[in-house]
Write a structure and sequence with these properties.
- The chain is of the alpha+beta class and 341 residues long.
- It is built from 14 helices and seven strands.
- The protein has a five-stranded mixed beta sheet with strand order 1-2-5-4-3.
- α7 packs antiparallel against α8, α7 crosses α10 and α12 runs antiparallel to α13.
- The longest helix has 34 residues.
- The termini are far apart.
- The C terminus is likely disordered.
């Protein structure tokens, strides 16, 4: 099994149930199994791989199956602990008067997958109002959390921040997001401009407020743009599952993205998902292919993949062309860190 073939095995594990029926993919050879292990661990796709194997979509040796089971058991324990922490944080922040909305991991697991155990995650992500960042950091510091770094976007040279990552005493990371958009566009999509759903998710026996389906799908698309390494498969599946959630989501997410000035980024995120999981169809496929980013955004993404003097110059062009709010964004993130120290 070559490197591309190993990738195909993992891709099939992640997406076999979203595409038309296909032949069973053979088990990895002993020589290339380590490559598959790395990709499965990186994607946290052990549950999806086990399900695919149980349905006959994948082959795996007994040794490989045992590794997948052990990997998944450990991932489930970690994810359940994160769920407990998330609920505690939402409660603590609520008592402090801070509205917080969970993102990604646990929300995707419960709302976008047939069984939440299939979608593992490694941290807690919360969307908060930018003005509440200082108060939120105080709540996390009271639980032993330490602000570790500002969240910027890997590969986006000179990008402003869009939140803070907090390290908890047990090593868990809590990411506080002040927008669902990438850093340069963060002021366009704060919590105040996102529709919410108070009834979709029940966790630990009680309802938890989450993003409504359209902003959830938009966030999934925008999140894909932050990954400048090998294409991630599980986030791509999250986006496609969000777009296929019901008949109204696709058109609504287009409307929401247009209202926020993020339609180009939505299309780019969808195209990235389509490239990661070819052959998987969804309602916005043709629309995304037909979209073309404007010259400023094309310059931004060109710069994101090419660090250096030219990239820094293009970043300044992007700012001068109207990335409103980046100075203010830097000010309140830095101010929040200072207030928490």
């Amino acid at each position: 099994m070559s490197e591309p073939a190993a990738q195909r095995w993992v891709r099939h594990a992640v997406s076999w149930d979203l595409r038309a029926a296909s032949a069973t993919v053979a088990a990895p050879t002993s020589a290339t199994w380590p490559t598959v292990q790395r990709r499965v661990a990186n994607e946290r796709a052990s549950g999806l791989a086990l399900r695919a194997a149980s349905e006959g979509a994948l082959d795996a040796t007994e040794e490989q199956h045992a590794w997948l089971v052990a990997q998944h058991d450990a991932g489930l324990v970690a994810s359940l602990r994160l769920d407990r922490l998330l609920l505690d944080l939402v409660d603590d922040l609520g008592r402090a008067g801070v509205r917080s909305v969970p993102l990604k991991g646990t929300v995707a697991a419960h709302l976008l997958y047939p069984d939440p155990a299939l979608r593992l995650y490694a941290d807690v992500d919360l969307l908060i109002d930018p003005e509440a960042l200082g108060a939120t950091l105080e709540v996390l510091r009271a639980r032993g959390g330490v602000p570790a770094r500002a969240i910027s976007d890997a590969g986006l040279v000179g990008a402003t921040t869009r939140g803070v990552a907090v390290s908890m005493p047990d090593g868990t990371e809590v990411d506080l997001h002040t927008s669902i958009a990438p850093a340069g566009w963060a002021p366009r999509a704060p919590l105040a401009r996102c529709a919410l759903d108070d009834a979709a998710l029940v966790l630990g026996g009680r309802p938890v407020t989450v993003l409504a389906p359209a902003p959830m799908a938009l966030h999934a698309a925008l999140h894909l743009l932050l990954d400048h390494g090998p294409r991630r498969l599980v986030p791509a599946r999250d986006l496609i599952a969000a777009l296929r959630r019901d008949a109204t989501v696709a058109e609504e997410v287009r409307r929401v993205a247009g209202d926020l000035g993020l339609a180009d980024l939505l299309a780019r995120g969808i195209r990235r998902a389509d490239g990661a999981l070819p052959g998987v169809h969804h309602p916005l496929q043709a629309w995304a292919r037909a979209q073309r980013a404007g010259p400023v955004d094309r310059a931004w993404w060109w710069a994101a993949d090419r660090p250096g003097v030219a990239a820094l110059a293009l970043r300044r062009v992007q700012i001068a062309a109207g990335l409103d709010g980046w100075v203010q964004k830097r000010r309140y993130v830095v101010g929040g860190l200072r207030r928490s120290s």
